[in-house]
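# nightly structure sweep
# worker-07 picked up a monomer target from the shared queue
# config: single-sequence mode, recycle default, output format = structure tokens
# input follows
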Amino acid sequence: MNQITEKKITISSLGKSIIKTLAYYDIFDYPLNLAEIYQNLGMNSVSLSDIQNEIEYLCDAGLTFEKSNFYLLRNNPNFISRRLEGNRLAAKKLNSAYRMTKFISKFPYVRAVLLSGSISKGYMEADSDVDYFIITHPNRLWVTRLLLMLFKKTFLLNSRKIFCINYFVDAATLEIEEKNIFTATELATLIPTYGKELYDELYKKNLWIREFYPNFPKRDTIHIVNDTDSSIKILFEKIFSSSWGDKLDDFAMSLFEKSNHYKYHNYNSKDFQVAFKTSKHESKHHPKFFQKRVLEEFNNKLKSFENIYNISLK
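# output follows
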């Protein structure tokens, strides 16, 4: 038994919150700097100097580690170089993501486009997907998804690296049902690229994320695309504004639902409903069920830390 586990270490509530913050990002081998710890902290009413003093105590106690002004839960300096390279690649891909946003915004019923997934965290690897979160016109979510998927399969050869659209909501239903640290992280880090007003509304409808991230700032909107709608988009929406559009949307929803049940029949019903949420107002397509994997690993990391150091993080 090492010296750390032989003696009882007392940690403040701030220290526990810091460890939880580092533990979440440790799932992705991603170290944080001081400002990022503050932004991702689960408590407010603390200053950067408070965090600095507390994390120095944690490092002195051997519970956390500091390398090149980054803080880690595991003493692996390779995570630093890995992160910096991933940051560089994400910055490079951000420009092409904005260009793709302009293209996506031209599709019928698209009302807002936001970057999600790893690129929204400022980190990418060579094989990472560029993920988009799409907000559509009410009752036209599935038509929108069908048109975008047909384009992706036909012209992009189904490439996810350029164009991965796995989450849709419509403008009438912006509050996200699942409320946990994973969904809070994904919502807080969304980068709006088209549809400023709907991003503002999405943020207002999901203020519950402040329970997890009270210090995380709302995203800047100065780079949002504000192009006018194309004549083709306007004409298509006019043609399908009647009951024909309602029927087409119902048909598209049925098509995707049947396809998901066929392809992913191995899922149990509870997991299927979360990973492939299908309703008139929301569409989620997460075959790898990343949310479940992250939440389970986060919980395991906290339990492991408590067992190793004989410290309760509750």
